[in-house]
Specification:
about 25% helix; single chain; Rossmann fold; globular; Glucose Oxidase, domain 1; 10 helices; alpha/beta
């Protein structure tokens, strides 16, 4: 037996699976009905304990093709029920076997509906997965005295640059914790991709002569990486830029806007976003705990292009003078709807336009 202890003293008992070690992190909830493998391997969950709201997780197992990173960085998993004997033609191991191999603890038998209601009401908070013998009072004391990590981007970003060669547009990706799906989106479009660490300087990026710069997703608070904001500030106006998730927030901060922590974040594959230009609603895949402050946009050169229909938070931005735009969600899906995959085409069209204008000068 194991137990989940929340910072507010709430205790939920359950059965352990995966690793047997105790873990401390920020507890969040994810609303997708499928895609648990992609979720667990998404670097944006670094430092977090994921509560899956769908009651049965693991029924189609784990396979080699659906990972979003080689080494998952989530801290723990909470489910109502995990499937011990998955059935699918691509299945290679169970969820329990996967978590054991990666030393990630899980707890099942938890009332995840009740847990989600607690998080929605009280907001994301610290939590621990521990053995049933662990003192609840001691756990709460430890959580109150211990800060959550602030170096998530540094933890999951690439250590050094690498190249995936091709003959198309030269795109430099700044890796704040990039998912494989984003990399696939560019390689499938024949782009020559150079991936650089999160703290690469603007001068070093421009030395690579990129046709465009892409700012990836990533975990944590954008305020924790001010060097990234400074780099993007120096890149704006010198090269086309497209940012998603963390990249979206970094663009906003580079232009003078601010960001804030959401009460419980957006994590799921069913988030409706309204596009102001087309007057269309898109279903999107999201995973973020911070948002751009809407009331700080007016004092910048940015304009809001999209907003969430759930809570009216900023979901899209565009620069009024330079070829720079961003979205808060994941247009590559993985997992989730593919409604917004066209944004990669729009970015590459912008890149080709800028290349043509420079060639004609």
């Amino acid at each position: 037996m194991r137990k989940l202890i929340l910072e507010d003293g709430t205790v939920m008992n359950g059965n352990g699976f995966g690793s047997e070690r105790s873990v401390f992190g920020e507890i969040v909830f994810q609303t997708g009905m499928t895609g648990y493998q992609e979720v667990m391997s998404d670097p944006s969950y670094c430092g977090q304990i994921i509560t899956f709201t769908y009651p049965l997780i693991g029924n189609y197992g784990i396979n080699r093709d659906d990972f979003e990173t080689i080494f998952p960085s989530l801290f723990g998993v909470v489910v109502k029920e995990h499937c011990e004997f998955p059935s699918n033609f691509r299945n290679e191991e169970s969820m329990d076997e996967f978590l054991k191999a990666r030393d990630i603890p899980g707890i099942s038998g938890v009332d995840t509906r009740q847990l989600t209601k607690i998080i929605r009401e009280n907001g994301t908070m610290k939590a621990m997965i521990v053995d049933e013998s662990f003192s609840t009072e001691e756990a709460v004391k430890q959580m109150k005295e211990t800060d959550l990590p602030h170096n998530q981007v540094e933890t999951v970003s690439a250590d050094k640059p690498y190249v995936i060669p091709n003959r198309g547009e030269r795109i430099t990706i700044v890796d704040y914790g990039m998912k494989n799906g984003l990399l696939r989106a560019f390689t499938e479009r024949n782009c020559h991709v150079t991936v650089v660490p999160y703290d690469t300087s603007a001068d070093e990026i421009l030395r690579q002569k990129p046709d465009g710069v892409f700012l990836s997703n990533g975990p944590g608070n954008p305020a924790d990486i001010p060097e990234a904001t400074e780099t993007v500030k120096q890149l704006i106006g010198r090269v086309p830029i497209f940012g998603v998730c963390m990249g979206h927030q970094i663009i906003a901060r580079a232009c003078g806007a601010t960001t804030h922590k959401l009460h419980f974040g957006h994590r799921g594959v069913n988030q409706p976003v309204f596009d102001k230009k087309s007057k269309r609603t898109f279903m999107t895949s999201q995973n973020h705990g911070y948002s751009v402050d809407d009331n700080t946009i007016m004092s910048t050169e940015l304009e809001v292009t999209q907003y969430s229909l759930n809570d009216q938070t900023v979901e899209g931005l565009k620069h009024s003078a330079y070829p720079v735009f961003s979205v808060q969600y994941h247009p590559e899906s993985t997992p989730g709807p593919e409604d917004t995959g066209h944004l990669f085409e729009e970015f590459l069209a912008l890149v080709r336009k800028e290349k043509g204008e420079k060639t004609n000068v």
